[in-house]
Amino acid sequence: MLGTILIVFLVLALFGALPRWPHSRDWGYFPTGGVGLVLLIVVILVLLGRL
Questions:
Q1: Which of 8, 21, 35, 47 has minimal CB crowding within 10 Å?
Q2: CB 42, CB 24: distance < 8 Å
Q3: How far apart are CA 4 and CA 36, in angstroms?
Q4: pLDDT per position in the chain (51 positions), as tens?
Q5: Distance (Å, rounded) from C-alpha 40 to C-alpha 14?
Q6: Contact, 3 vs 45, CB < 8 A?
Q7: Residues 8/9/15/21 CA torsion (nearest 10 deg)
Q8: Is 36 within 8 Å of 11 (Cβ atoms)?
Q9: Per the confidence metrics, is the pTM higher than 0.85?
């Protein structure tokens, strides 16, 4: 249950970190990549049954 809520929250954060304005396009992949990495780690932990 907690893992599912955490995954949904991180997916929403991933969409929120996408660059949408011209000034944020200079940031590169840092915000999306960081949230995506955390999402990947959480998904792996959920699949392994550790979370």
A1: 21
A2: no
A3: 16
A4: 777 888 888 888 877 776 666 766 676 666 667 777 888 888 888 888 887
A5: 11
A6: yes
A7: 160
A8: no
A9: no
